[in-house]
Amino acid sequence: MNLDAVPLENYRRPGPARLRLYLSLLLMLVLTAILGKKRDGDLGTVETLKRSSFARIMFMDIGALSTLGALYLALNGKTRVRVPAAVASLAVGSFSLLPALAYEDWKAMQEGADQPPQN
């Protein structure tokens, strides 16, 4: 597969495409949390983790990704929200990380709009 043909350039730097991605993911996350209520026969988190090695692996994977996301935000963020959001993402994951990344991009886009175009 030729990755040069895939339009990933729109996601390398802050811009409308990347901001839409962050906000779309956040919307799906929030809707799932609100609408995905407990179902009959649902074991719950603790019981699922006790019974399923796959669930334990996925739980650890989510923890690792949250840690990497927090580290990325803390090291590469430029706004004041970067450190509090990075710390919060270790506890609440994407509920903190996605809004912080969206805010970082939005601020970068605002600052870029204030600067004259470069030739």
Automatic annotation (TrEMBL):
The chain crosses the membrane at residues 20-36, 57-75, 81-103. The keyword Transmembrane applies. Keywords: Membrane, Transmembrane, Transmembrane helix. It comes from the Bacteria. This is Uncharacterized protein.
